[in-house]
């Protein structure tokens, strides 16, 4: 009887160890990559970077799937991702080292290899091979179970106790993630909308997103209805495929997008995302302001690690994380007076909501 109970007790112990996930959510371009890199320095925390965003419109499609189906989802680039890479529109977050010794050429890199696995190790191709074998051996299960398996498999591989997923532009994923992972907690990192908008305007992926959202609204489609959200919408994958059938990098580069459009985009993300977070129990949410994290790093990092779990407080990690911070001055102050006024007006609803009063 005791022998039969022992595996059960071990399973329960493992389940308890890995049942308190944390998601870092944001609009993107607000310091979440910095925080993800800090998490990577911790001896007990697994930093999972850009997992969901890399899957774009297919991130949360389907209630159940086989391991083989999920493997194929992690292996095949979205039409938008392929268009960006094959036209040399490479984003800052892309970590896969392209070169003569690389297994994959641009346009063929699996989504999970764009950032997630190279963020964890230089031996990312072997890691992908091993993860693929484990995933493909799984039968049909809920999408949640497959994703949790991937994260826990990686945590076990790197001898970590907690996994923390961080994807840029993930604020709108909150309702889906909260439903899929009812034990999850959320760290919301945000930044002054004016600086965030300027950073978005220089980023290929955000330029595509703003173009898409403006086009949807032009045709009377609300991008923030649950049925229309990227990652959960049943028809957006088809529209994404259709759009990139006619994509040309030359036309993309010629397209001008006024800076206030990025401010409006950011503001809508914040207004909807904060509403989603406010619907959760307050103990499940930690809000962090980027500017405060730079000016008071010790205080903010202590808040963060205590939220993850007070047992993970580590003075060596804290010192290493603080040493990695590179102070930045605001970019919006370099705009002309007219540009500042227009951008401030575009960002105003969310700026007020977040307490930016300057």
Helix content: 40-55%
CATH architecture, by name, is: 3-Layer(aba) Sandwich
**Given the structure, what is the number of helices?**
19
- How much of the polypeptide forms β-strand, as a percent range? 5-15%
Give the domain tally.
1
Total strands: the figure is: 7
| Average pLDDT score | 93
Q: What is the level 1 CATH name?
A: Alpha Beta
Structure notes:
This protein is globular. It has 358 residues and is α/β, with parallel strands linked by helices. It has one domain: 3-Layer(aba) Sandwich (Rossmann fold). It has a five-stranded parallel β-sheet with strand order 2-5-1-6-7, with helices on both faces. Helix 15 runs parallel beside helix 19 (337-354). The longest helix has 20 residues, at 259-278. The chain is built from 19 helices and seven strands.
Please name the defining characteristics of this protein.
Rossmann fold; alpha/beta; single chain; about 350 residues; about 55% helix; five-stranded parallel beta sheet; two-stranded antiparallel sheet; 19 helices; disordered N terminus
Question: Any chance you could write out the topology, listing elements then pairs?
Answer:
Blueprint: H1 2-17, E1 22-25, H2 32-40, E2 45-49, H3 51-55, E3 64-65, H4 67-75, H5 79-86, H6 111-114, H7 116-120, H8 124-136, E4 141-142, H9 143-157, E5 162-166, H10 174-180, E6 185-190, H11 193-201, H12 204-218, H13 236-245, H14 249-254, H15 259-278, E7 285-289, H16 290-295, H17 297-308, H18 315-323, H19 337-354
Parallel strand pairs: 1-5, 1-6, 2-5, 6-7
Antiparallel strand pairs: 3-4
């Amino acid at each position: 009887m005791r022998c039969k109970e022992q595996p059960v007790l071990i399973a329960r112990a493992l389940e308890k160890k890995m049942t308190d996930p944390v998601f870092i959510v944001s609009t993107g371009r607000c310091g979440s990559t910095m925080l993800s890199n800090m998490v990577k320095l911790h001896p007990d925390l697994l930093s999972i970077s850009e997992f969901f965003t890399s899957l774009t419109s297919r991130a949360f499609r389907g209630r159940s799937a086989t391991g083989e189906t999920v493997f194929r989802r992690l292996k095949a680039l979205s039409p938008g991702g392929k268009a960006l890479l094959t036209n040399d529109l490479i984003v800052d977050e892309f970590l896969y080292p392209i070169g003569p010794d690389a297994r994959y050429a641009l346009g063929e890199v699996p989504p999970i290899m764009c950032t997630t696995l190279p963020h964890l190790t230089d031996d990312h191709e072997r890691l992908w091979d091993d993860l693929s074998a484990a995933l493909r051996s799984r039968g049909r299960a809920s999408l949640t179970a497959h994703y949790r398996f991937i994260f826990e498999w990686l945590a076990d591989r790197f001898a970590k106790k907690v996994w923390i997923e961080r994807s840029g532009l993930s604020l709108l994923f909150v309702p889906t993630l909260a439903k899929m992972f009812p034990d999850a907690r959320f760290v919301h990192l945000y930044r002054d909308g004016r600086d965030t908008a300027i950073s978005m305007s220089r980023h290929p992926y955000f330029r595509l997103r703003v173009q898409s959202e403006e086009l949807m609204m032009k045709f009377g489609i609300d991008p923030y209805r649950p049925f229309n959200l990227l990652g959960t919408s049943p028809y957006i994958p088809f529209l994404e495929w259709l759009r990139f059938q006619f994509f040309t990098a030359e036309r993309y580069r010629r397209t001008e997008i006024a800076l206030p459009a990025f401010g409006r985009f950011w503001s809508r993300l914040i207004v909807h995302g904060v509403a989603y977070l406010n619907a959760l129990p307050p103990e499940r949410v930690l809000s962090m302001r980027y500017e405060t994290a730079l000016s008071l790093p010790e205080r903010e990092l202590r808040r963060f690690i205590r939220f993850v779990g007070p047992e993970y407080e580590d003075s060596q990690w804290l010192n290493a994380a603080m040493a990695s911070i590179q102070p930045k001055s605001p970019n919006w102050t370099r705009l002309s007076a007219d540009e500042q006024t227009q951008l401030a007006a575009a960002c105003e609803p969310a700026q007020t909501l977040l307490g930016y009063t300057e």
